[in-house]
Amino acid sequence: MSANVPKRFELEIPIACDKELEATKVAERVAQEMQFGPDCVAEIKLALIEGIINAFEHSGSAIQKVLVEFAIHDEELEVVVQDFGQGFDASSKPNVRPLQRRGYGRVLMESLMDEVKYFTSPQGTRLVMKKRRPKCA
Ligand SMILES: Nc1ncnc2c1ncn2[C@@H]1O[C@H](COP(=O)(O)OP(=O)(O)OP(=O)(O)O)[C@@H](O)[C@H]1O
Ligand SMILES: [Mg+2]
Fold first, then answer.
1. Contact at 8 Å (CB) between 70 and 78?
2. What is the CATH number of the domain that holds 53?
3. Which terminal residue of the chain has fewer beta carbons within 10 Å of its beta carbon, N or C?
4. Ligand 1 center to residue 83 CA distance, Å?
5. What is the pLDDT of residues 15-59, one digit of tens each?
6. Does 121 map to a domain?
7. Which residues are placed with Cβ below 5 angstroms of ligand 2, an ion?
8. Mutate to test the pocket of ligand 1, among 46, 49, 58, 102 (most ligand atoms within 8 A of CB)
9. Strand ranges in 1-137 using DSSP code E only, listed in sequence order
10. Is residue 3 part of a domain?
């Protein structure tokens, strides 16, 4: 990996239409630098888009921004989406609504990433996702 990519860094994304795409451009560059293959790069980008859109759509945040953090570890890439909204009960099973074609986002992120965890409170939600390198040559 090139020396000019820091091990951990953060982006601030305004809650506004299409702004999640800026984060995915950074995710793509980081994942490519980490030697993830094209399929894995696409999986990371898709999971990140869903995590950010969930924060935009569901957080109810008065603070009109979301933080996206990348942490490059030897074995994995960690991607965090932090919002400052109302939180939710992440221990409940995802509420899939087939008629509305809604409720698939969490299931999707879990299928795309190796680990998906929520840390959520009335002060905000922190979504922590990890993608391990070895599975993704
Ligand atoms: N950052 C968040 N803040 C508050 N609630 C959240 C957040 N992320 C997810 N949720 C809650 O979890 C539910 C499930 O999210 P999920 O992404 O699975 O489905 P969805 O966003 O409702 O629909 P879809 O992603 O299929 O369009 C959401 O409906 C919302 O209630
Ligand atoms: Mg969703």
1. yes
2. 3.30.565.10
3. C
4. 13
5. 999 999 999 999 999 999 999 999 999 999 999 999 999 999 999
6. yes
7. 54, 105
8. 58
9. 8-14, 65-72, 76-83, 115-121, 124-132
10. no
